[in-house]
Amino acid sequence: MRRDLADYYQLHSTLCRAFSKADKKCPPGEFLWRHEPETNAKGLPQILILSKNLPDWSGIGIKGWLNSVDPAIDLKEKLQLQQLSPGQRFRFRLRANPSVTRKGKRFGLMQASEQESWLEKKSHLHGFQLQELPSFALTESENCRLDVCIVEERVLRGKQHSGNSITIFSVLFEGVLSVTEPEKFIQTLGSGIGHAKAMGQGMLSIIPV
Questions:
Q1: Is the per-residue pLDDT at 171 higher than 70?
Q2: For residues 9 and 198, what is the distance between their CA atoms, to the nearest angstrom?
Q3: Using CA atoms in the order 83, 96, 207, 65, what is the torsion angle rounded to 10 degrees?
Q4: Can you tell me whether residue 172 is helix, strand or coil?
Q5: Looking at CB atoms within 10 Å, which of 50, 95, 155, 186 has the fewest?
Q6: Above pLDDT 70, what percent of the chain?
Q7: How many CB atoms lie within 10 A of CB 50?
Q8: 6: how many CB neighbours lie within 10 A of its CB?
Q9: Does residue 26 surpass a pLDDT of 90?
Q10: What is the pLDDT of residues 92-107, one digit of tens each?
Q11: What is the pLDDT of residue 135?
């Protein structure tokens, strides 16, 4: 596990074994995952998984790789997604790769203002909008202050089986959002946001406000 945590691409490959047989490729879009910033009560790392099907953890085949597994949760039932309506608000967490493509190359957005703008643009494409904080000064009335925190920034590195190295810039966002298009928002929960899903990016997790 500790070796995989130093190489998120390899960590993704290991997790794939729980969703596909050893001689087959992991089905695209089968699952999203995120390495959480908090450790559990024993001080061990935690990985959050969102998947279409239940994993078979025995497929990983590495003794002691998993210390424990929490029971699976049916999010559709838990969050009553079939009854989702515009205006519903949720607290969210998203680890993502805010980036821009120029001349065929992808560049990470390093400034906080750029990262928040990236997330705001993505929200319009994915069925939600970010909440604005209340303004306490008249001079701020024309300025949008979003209820979003950038909790963590990291440069992640990995190596593909071909030997190619991967380096991406990762940002952990937290904040409050409201749903604008329920059907599109539900699709977003399943498909994630942005690039680098194989590096543990893009999973949007929510809890009701």
A1: yes
A2: 6
A3: 110
A4: strand
A5: 155
A6: 94
A7: 16
A8: 11
A9: no
A10: 999 999 999 998 888 9
A11: 65
- How far is Cα 4 from Cα 27, in angstroms, rounded to an integer? 20
DSSP 189: H
DSSP 103-129: TTEEEE--SHHHHHHHHHHHHHHTTEE
**CA distances (Å), 73 to each of 16, 52, 123, 186, in order?**
19, 12, 25, 16
| Cβ contacts of 172 within 8 Å, gap of 6 or more | 37, 93, 94, 95, 150, 151, 152, 153, 154
pLDDT tens digit string along 77-97? Answer: 999 999 999 999 999 999 999
Cα separation values, 92 from 85, 142, 149, 207, Å: 17, 25, 10, 7
In one letter, which amino acid is 71? P
Residue with tokens 């992991």: 26
The first and second tokens of residue 62, run together, are: 């590495």
